From TrEMBL:
It comes from the Bacteria. It holds the Pfam family YjgF_endoribonc. It comes from Paenarthrobacter aromaticivorans. InterPro entries: Endoribo_LPSP/chorism_mut-like (IPR013813). This is RidA family protein. Residues 12-144 form the Endoribonuclease L-PSP/chorismate mutase-like domain.
């Protein structure tokens, strides 16, 4: 992975061909909650423009590369929630990321799925994107999505 830290985090995001999405409001939960200096980001699914980008179980219905791309979209949605909290992408510092992968019991490559999200965070945020991380396989996720990502971040 090559990280060029020229320009702002938003410039680096755009250089990847990406934009921060607008997150849909929910009557049941908020996308982020501040507790002291920590910002807890609610689990984000790989939605783009209101459409869930994939469904199924990784290792059965969904291949590794597709799951990695879905993880990148879920991480992008987490970044959007973080920006709601801190106001500027350059101020986002990721502390911890938890990646849930709906996968077959024998899949075993959850960390490779999570790596795609980690790579995106570091490409966009540089050192502020480096984080502690857990990647786990689960039997199922909301809306039959293959990936869900939850984060804790702070304002840099």
């Amino acid at each position: 992975m090559s990280v060029t830290m020229a320009g702002s985090a938003l410039d680096r995001l755009r250089a990847l061909g990406l934009e921060l999405p607008t997150l849909a409001d929910s009557p049941y939960y908020v996308d982020h909650r501040e507790v002291g200096s920590s910002i807890h980001i609610a689990g984000q699914l790989p939605y783009k423009d209101g459409v869930l980008l994939g469904q199924g179980i990784v290792g059965r219905d969904v291949g590794l590369e597709t799951a990695r791309e879905l993880a990148r979209h879920a991480a992008l949605n987490c970044l959007a929630a973080a920006v709601q909290a801190v106001g500027d992408l350059d101020r986002v510092r990721i502390v911890q990321m938890l990646v849930f992968v709906a996968s077959t019991p024998d899949f075993g490559l959850q960390s490779r799925v999570a790596n795609a999200a980690s790579e995106l965070l570091i490409e966009v945020l540089g050192e502020n994107g480096r984080h502690a991380r857990t990647a786990i396989g689960v039997a199922g996720l909301p809306a039959n999505t293959p990936v869900e990502i939850q984060m804790i971040c702070t304002a840099a």
